[in-house]
Specification:
The protein has 377 residues and is α/β, with parallel strands linked by helices. The protein has one domain (21-376): TIM Barrel. 33% of the residues lie in helices and 14% in strands. It contains 11 helices and 13 strands. It has an 8-stranded parallel barrel. α7 links the parallel β7 and β8. α4 (96-116) packs parallel to α6, α9 (271-289) packs parallel to α10 (308-318) and α10 (308-318) packs parallel to α11 (350-358). The two termini are 20 Å apart. Residues 4-22 have low confidence and may be disordered. InterPro entries: GH (IPR017853), GH26_dom (IPR022790), Glyco_hydro_26 (IPR000805), MANB/E (IPR016714).
């Protein structure tokens, strides 16, 4: 294990109860103890560290699919990423049988991550719930899809049935300790862009906020799902806190604030300064509102820059006084020779990634002992 983390004490010594709080606490007052502890420990770890994450890391990688206990990151470093990204994309727009198969596949992945002591975050490339097709906006979608699925909309019941799948899945994540695995749920990401049907050009601010609040309330209050943390993550289209919060649903509806940022993380030598400034806005708001903060998606496709990990990504995260729970890079496609965002054995950025891995600022799965059961101080 490469890092010596902060001292930990058993819960019984600290006297933390299921109704205890950290910072202002999770927005779910009935959140499970494991979920509350994850919130607290991410908060404390972010004072000195950031967890490294990779989307679909243990589902597939560069040139492989479905191997047990494998990830490209582990093949390079010996440890899985600390945060494993999954996606609810196939929880809708498929046959009932296919949806159930996907729920079981992702359940197995999430439970295995939890049992190893890793952290799970779920994105949602949400297929158009009206016709079950693409998550991208299409010109033929002349009517706002968001307006059609919020309460009072023509397709609201259809949306509720899709949320029922997410709810039943979340309540099925029983680990070997008998507890439900917590999940950081990140719905409607990159909403400030126009590429998704829930994006800013395609729905009003008011309808977007209504959709967010209904989604949280239905899962938490109607379906009694108490092992989710909710993350708000626009893309990089902001320069001020006011712009960052333009579609913010309110502090009582969000556990984590973040941003997705690829465009400021490329080959431009000024990119780290721009990205770091935006991360400071995110982190400063999280401190003020007593939320978690994260760089929820980033990366450089094909990683041709042999020093990108330390001279762009790590430099960006360390440039200002920011507290980030995690940074997550995008997936490694199993077939494409160029679509990958984490190194694999022999990839040109491996030596620099090893420097990134060894830096005490970054945490990988091997560093997370007790993240659900012990309180870091």
């Amino acid at each position: 294990m490469k890092n010596q983390l902060l001292p930990v004490l058993a819960l019984v010594v600290l006297g933390i109860s299921a109704c205890g709080s950290v910072r202002n606490g999770t927005i779910d007052r009935q959140a499970s103890l494991r979920t509350k502890m994850l919130f607290h420990n991410l908060d404390k770890l972010s004072e000195k560290h950031t967890l490294f994450g990779h989307q679909h890391a243990t589902e597939y990688g560069h040139g492989w699919w479905g191997d047990a206990d494998r990830s490209d990151v582990k093949s390079v470093t010996g440890s899985h990423p600390a945060v494993i990204g999954i996606d609810f994309m196939d929880f809708s727009g498929r046959s009932p049988e296919a949806v159930e198969q996907e729920k079981e596949r992702l359940r197995n992945n999430a439970v295995a991550t939890y049992d190893r002591g890793g952290v799970i975050t779920a994105a949602w490339h949400f297929r158009n719930p009206v016709d079950g097709n693409s998550f991208y906006w299409r010109p033929e979608d002349s009517l706002s899809i968001v307006a059609r699925i919020i309460p009072g909309g023509t397709d609201h019941e259809k949306y509720r049935s899709i949320l029922d799948h997410i709810g039943s899945w979340a309540k099925s994540l029983t680990g070997r300790d008998g507890e439900l695995a917590p999940v950081i749920f990140r719905p409607f990401h990159e909403f400030d862009g126009g590429w998704f049907w829930w994006g800013k050009p395609h729905t009003s601010r008011e309808d977007f906020i209504t959709l967010w609040r209904f989604t949280v309330s239905y899962l938490r209050d109607t379906l009694d799902v108490h092992n989710l943390l909710y993350a708000y993550s626009p893309d990089r289209n902001f320069l001020t806190e006011t712009q960052f919060l333009e579609r913010y649903p309110g502090d009582e509806w969000v556990d984590m604030v973040g941003m997705d940022n690829y465009g400021d993380m490329g080959r431009d030598r000024y990119a780290p300064y721009t990205a770091a400034m935006k991360l400071k806005i995110v982190s400063d708001y999280a401190r003020k509102a007593r939320k978690l903060a994260a760089l929820t998606e980033t990366g450089l496709e094909s990683i041709p820059d042999t020093s990108w990990w330390t001279q762009t990504l790590l430099r960006t995260m360390k440039m200002h006084d920011t507290e980030l729970a995690f940074v997550l890079v995008w997936r490694n496609d199993t077939r494409s020779p160029t679509h990958y965002y984490a190194p694999f054995p022999g990839q040109v950025s491996v030596p620099d990634f090893m420097r990134f891995y060894r830096d005490n600022y970054t945490l990988f799965e091997e560093d997370l002992e007790g993240i659900y059961t012990r309180k870091r101080r």
